[in-house]
Protein 1
Amino acid sequence: MSYDQVGLLASIPLLVGGFLELPMGVLAGQGRRRRRVILGGGILFVLTLLAVASAGSFAVLMAAFVAFYPASGAFVSLTQAKIMDAWPDRQAQVMVRWDLAGAIGAVAGPLLLTAVLASGGGWRAGYLVLAGIGALAWLGALLRREPAAGGHRAERAAEDTARKPWTARARDAAPEIGRALRDWGTLRWLLLIEVADLLVDVFTGFLALYLVDVAHLTPAAAALAIAVRLGAALAGDAALIVILERAGDLTVLRVSAAAAALLYPAFLLVPGVVPKLAVLAALSAATAAWYPVLQARLYGSLPGRSSVAVTLSSAAGLAGGLGPLAVGLVAQGFGLSWALAGLALVPVAVLLVPGRPAGPGPGEAGGHT
């Protein structure tokens, strides 16, 4: 492919597929209808991976990547919402386990590709392996037994809502979404998730370029830094499972933000490969708490309305896609070192925003947000 095709393949599926994913949460509803949407999304999830593996033209490849976003929204995002509904009093603890699974996948992905290439396969074989893994995950979701519905008033209400046509559910959901956006208790977590991501995924995207172009390290050292960051984040997620059983989620969030406020400038300023990698590892472990705690708080601010949380997260994710563009524009105008230096404000925002009083949230019952 040409460079412009690569750029289109990176941006068009994010925008178009993300837009198609937007109504997924509210239209799927709850109960048995949501389960059917999850299973249907899983089938489409596997089919899109197979389509990528067998694509013979750029158009087919683009269509498969676009379809992957709503498929992932139905299969993955709705599963996350279902888990949050099942554990309303332990959402932070459960979310960090979810995040740990994602971190394991982030580390296993390059290893899987390396193994496929070492065995003589190509990128198509890699996607075929992913399709097989996805099929196993779908089978697990299919075989998982669901609790009998109708035993509680909330369950009966969910089933009544699920029987409504999708147009009626969309009309009913619009006021719910509007109320959620007017509620600071929900909006702050939604905004903070995207702000925090600037020092997580967005920073990771520019990390290798920064180390080579600004810190003047070798490409091999930059590749090692990416591995260190992923491994340290994985270790941070694993440690967080134990920590959240002993400390409140907001306490953990504040401590990690305070640590990141010191570690991130240190990473930018410290010279030498080994010191930079050491500080990077500590920073990556510290920020591992941000997504699971903030996402759990978002669900906790919308009790019984996880479908609204899914839709709002999808919308915020589309807006958050401007983050890499903003960093890139600043880097183009003022240099990458100044663009990344501006991210030092992110841990300050994480420290300050949760300080306002509100009701108790997940993992810190009786506390204040």
Protein 2
Amino acid sequence: MALKLDDIKQPVADELEILEKKFRDSMKSHVPLLDRVTHYIVKRKGKQLRPMFVLLCARLFGNIGDKTYNAAALVELLHTATLVHDDVVDEAYYRRGFFSVNALWKNKISVLVGDYLLSKGLLLSINNEHFDLLKILSKAVKEMSEGELLQMEKAHKLDIKEDVYFEIIRQKTASLISSACACGAASVIDDVAKIDKVRLFGEKIGIAFQIKDDLFDYGNHEIGKPKGIDIKERKMTLPLIFALNKASFFEKKRLVNIVKNESKNPRKVDEVILFVRQSGGIEYATEKMKQYRQEALDILQTFPDNEARKSLADLVLFTTERTK
């Protein structure tokens, strides 16, 4: 039976509703334009996976209080800021099936809105003197920026090896999820070793989460037609890296040429997707995803056995079994 988010979030369902109001309040501004944009963002929020990680990791070790709510709001503010900026960087005009902020208000306003959300997160921490949370999240923002720039640098040469790929996704995706988990724990305990263990749990599932995203590009029986978006954007993902490592010299040269120079040609992109599938790239990436998922679950088993741990285990499975 497929896992449902409504069931997973049950131990913190009431807290998520309280958080939603706090999050809306944290975005308010006296500038009407800002209020219009942030209202649009809030109305089209995603699955709330990161706040769920914050709240559930806090519930693992104690009772949710104001510091936990502030931690979750801070994570959401920083995450939303990075999404707004990412859409500008990627020139993306859709987000979760709706127009992106830059599609409606253009790049200048989008960059400033992202900056505003980032500053609201910083002030939320400073005004409440939650400097430990600010330290955790500031490191994540730094790593996300480094990961994005490293990926851009490598996209020009298309020379990403597997170890570099994992470093990119650890920074770009896993750092925020690991920080969300660490902030949740840090909001209720001050045991540095435990908080770091929770952070590592988040990092493992963050890496598995990104590999799952990479696999969507190649499609399957549930998703249907492959998207090929990463190939069109010249992003070297794990299935493609594996396939290129297995390719002969001339095959590799041909595939790299397609990604570099013909990635806008749908027929050529389909050739790359077919080669990746036939080379075993999908199976390899799937096994790697399952490996990181199991490592996350193994760490989770060392934490207190309670309702929050059960939901976190289900959330780990949900993130790697989702179909979109």
Protein 3
Amino acid sequence: MKLVRFSQKGPTRIGKVVGNTVVDLSAIYPEAGNSMRALLARLPELRAAIEACDLPSFDLAEVTLEAPIDDPQKFLAIGMNYKAHADEALKGAGIPLPTSQLWFNKQVSCINGPYSEVEIPSVSNQVDYEAELGVIIGKRCRNVSRADARAVIAGYVVCNDVTARDWQFRSPTYTLGKSFDTHGPIGPWITTDDEIADPHALTLTLDYNGEERQRSSTGDMIYDIFDQIEYLSTVMTLEPGDILATGTPAGVGIASGTFMKPGDVVRVTVDGLGSIENTFVAGR
């Protein structure tokens, strides 16, 4: 299934995408309102009803797609998780390859829609893009083994880990440079795990103003998704709706001295998941 949050001349609702239509799922779990996190927490028991629902529906071209989840408890991202990107980080910024998984927070207030504008804050002149595969947790879990990790995944999204590089390198942690408002576009929907044969065999690409800048297979991760879930759940309880951004390949803007300016358009695509496309605009 492709689970989505959308609006159509009114409030935001939860739906599913079927072909070129969006089916409104509001009647399946009305108590959830427009909270995808609430729906995911009960997805196993609601799944049959969701799959059977076929009305009401809207033309996909006539709705506005919102961030497929806007209320997660955590938005976590791993740094330098593709070897080629780690190499360019060492060459360009002198950052050595980490000896273990390097995790940081993106504050949930940065979450943005799949086609919404991304702001270039006036306090930064080094805003960069990072194409990533996002994982959405589906079950409350702790101390998950690698062998059991896939069972706690609800699905996947396309993600752009927008980064203000000057703020990223200003402090020992990356959180501030990763968390400006609008700097977490995700979408276009949550593709449930059962639709993806192998999440480590997907092609990930990024186009900057129509020019391809990033291309890699998710199989090139240093620490794969199951390693990541095992590692994180050793420390903290993961909750339904939590977002894990799994790393970006080589070709980020800082490597070529390219930083975002108003009017730039960045499109990120992951095979089987769709694309997000965001225009960068001047912000406050």
